[in-house]
């Protein structure tokens, strides 16, 4: 009897040891469970695929995730209907799981001024516009704007030095202050370098390539040999017009020649440069500062040439299509901007 009991106890002990050996150890914390996870909502009042502004913001967030694995980003595209943007912000603020929300463009500032005070334990970054900090307690909002007039001045200098007709154009998305700030800088730079006529037209929207092409074709037919597009997705039509007419277009926000070259290298040959509004760099910078605890919430920062917020794309097309003397003059103008020797006009004075 004792022998049987001893065998039985040995079997129980053996099974217990096997279960212990095969069973899970103490579970390791996953990224979702970690206290250091930073959840970000990237709210786009439009759609991705514009090869310009919103795509630049998306690139910035992808860089953040690549360099900071604790950051998780969910992108929400609110669509192109402005009537839906406030509701999209309110819904995301109320129902999404996030620590910080990122959104942009001038149309969203008033909505954020209403929403942000309702969520004092959340943080918000708004780019390309500033909220009005006098309207409410917006100490949880950081605003970053860009000196697009400085970047556009460089684009104007470029077309002024390159134009053979003395006539250039610019297609704006809408007749609004931020777009006009591009235009005044562009016109100042162009006229300072030999341009006698700057043709300005507004498309009335941001996602109408057919309208952009129509306006650019008319400018080329009036003698323009360079047209600057400041119209988001509408500007795709400006590139089509330049290719069709054998003229040149200047991109905006992103290095659009390199983006377009991925799918249409022939068209990229007609985009010698782009005026860069470095949304991607500014959002990466903001998130880095947020992670480090140094982002100045409750304030607005304006990033220009000196801060790397704006500039001129100098890619393979720029290198190949731009004469050496023009490159040298562009470099001198950039230095003069940094040194404060050139004061660029702005509509925000």
Give a verbal description of the structure.
The chain has two domains: 38-146, Response regulator (Rossmann fold), CATH 3.40.50.2300; 149-276 and 314-338, Response regulator (Rossmann fold). 44% of the residues lie in helices and 18% in strands. It has 13 helices and twelve strands. The strands form two sheets. Strands 2-1-3-4-5-11 form a six-stranded parallel β-sheet, sandwiched between helices. β8, α8 and β9 form a beta-alpha-beta unit. It is globular and about 55 Å long.
Question: What's this model, at a glance?
Answer:
The protein is an alpha/beta fold.
Distance between the termini: 101 Å
Estimate the strand proportion: 15-25%
Strand order of the largest sheet: 2-1-3-4-5-11
Number of domains: 2
Q: Structural class of the secondary elements?
A: alpha/beta
Order of helices and strands: HEHEHEHEEHEHEHEHEHHEHEEHH
Helix content estimate: 40-55%
CATH class of the largest domain: Alpha Beta
Name of the CATH superfamily of the largest domain = Response regulator
| Rg calc | 26 Å
Fold topology:
Blueprint: H1 2-22, E1 38-44, H2 53-67, E2 71-77, H3 85-95, E3 100-104, H4 109-115, E4 123-127, E5 141-146, H5 148-162, E6 167-172, H6 177-191, E7 197-202, H7 209-221, E8 226-230, H8 236-245, E9 248-253, H9 256-261, H10 265-268, E10 274-277, H11 279-292, E11 300-303, E12 310-312, H12 316-321, H13 324-338
Parallel strand pairs: 1-2, 1-3, 3-4, 4-5, 5-11, 6-7, 6-8, 8-9, 9-10
Antiparallel strand pairs: 10-12
Helix pairs in contact: 2-11, 5-6, 5-13, 7-8
């Amino acid at each position: 009897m004792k022998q049987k009991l001893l065998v039985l106890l040995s079997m129980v002990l053996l099974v217990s040891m096997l279960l212990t050996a095969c069973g899970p150890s103490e579970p390791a914390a996953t990224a979702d469970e970690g206290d250091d996870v930073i959840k970000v909502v990237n709210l786009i009042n439009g759609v991705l695929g514009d090869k310009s502004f919103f795509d630049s913001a998306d690139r910035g967030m992808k860089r953040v995730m690549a360099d900071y694995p604790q950051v998780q980003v969910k992108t929400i595209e609110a669509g192109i209907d402005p009537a839906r943007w406030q509701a999209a912000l309110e819904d995301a603020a109320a129902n999404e799981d996030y620590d910080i929300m990122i959104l942009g463009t001038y149309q969203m500032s008033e909505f954020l001024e209403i929403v942000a005070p309702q969520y004092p334990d959340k943080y918000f970054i708004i780019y390309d516009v500033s909220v009005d900090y006098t309207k409410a307690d917006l100490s949880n909002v950081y605003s970053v704007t860009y000196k697009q007039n400085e970047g556009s001045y460089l684009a104007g200098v470029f077309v002024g030095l390159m134009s053979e007709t003395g006539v250039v154009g610019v297609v704006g998305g809408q007749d609004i202050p931020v777009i006009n700030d591009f235009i005044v800088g562009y016109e100042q730079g162009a006229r300072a370098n030999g341009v006698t006529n700057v043709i300005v037209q507004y498309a009335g929207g941001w996602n109408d390539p057919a309208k952009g092409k129509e306006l650019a074709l008319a400018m080329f037919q009036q003698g323009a040999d360079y047209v600057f597009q400041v119209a988001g997705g509408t500007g795709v039509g400006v590139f089509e017009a330049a290719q069709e007419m054998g003229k040149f277009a200047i991109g905006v926000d992103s290095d659009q020649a390199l983006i377009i070259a991925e799918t249409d290298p022939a068209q990229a040959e007609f985009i010698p440069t782009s005026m860069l509004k470095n949304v991607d760099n500014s959002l990466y910078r903001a998130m880095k500062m947020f992670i480090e605890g140094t982002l100045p919430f409750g304030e607005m920062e304006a990033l220009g040439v000196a801060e790397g917020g704006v500039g001129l794309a100098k890619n393979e097309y720029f290198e190949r299509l731009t004469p050496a003397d023009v490159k040298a003059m562009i470099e001198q103008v950039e230095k003069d901007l940094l040194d404060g020797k050139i004061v660029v006009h702005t509509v925000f004075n």
